[in-house]
Design brief:
The protein has 105 residues and is of the alpha+beta class. The chain contains 2 helices and 7 strands.
């Protein structure tokens, strides 16, 4: 029986740890550059900027980039859970969907 179950529901990228964000982007095959406006994230469908806790993109790109924002949030949450699991010597079990379990052996 798992000790904890975490449902990934919501995540604010504005509070994101940069190292975890970079790891999440790398796991998705994306890259990130520092610009004057903030962090520019490059996806196959276009670029978005993470500035002052908000994801900024051109209006005409909303439909193309919104799925990428959701993928980035899920990948970031996964990396955060993996970090906590490693810190407390637990194992992450992914039964499917957006559910994960942390188990200590």
């Amino acid at each position: 029986m798992p000790c904890y179950q975490v449902n990934m529901i919501s995540l604010e990228l504005g509070a994101a740890d940069r190292a975890l964000l970079e790891a999440a982007l790398k796991s998705l095959g994306l890259s990130m550059d520092e610009t004057i406006d903030g962090l520019q994230i490059k996806t196959p469908d276009g670029c978005m900027t993470l500035s002052d806790g908000k994801v900024l993109m051109e209006d005409y790109m909303q439909d193309n980039l919104q799925p990428w924002v959701n993928r980035i949030k899920r990948a970031y949450a996964m990396k955060a859970v993996e970090l906590v699991a490693k810190k407390y010597r637990m194992t992450v079990v992914k039964p499917g969907g957006s559910r994960m379990s942390l188990r200590r052996y």
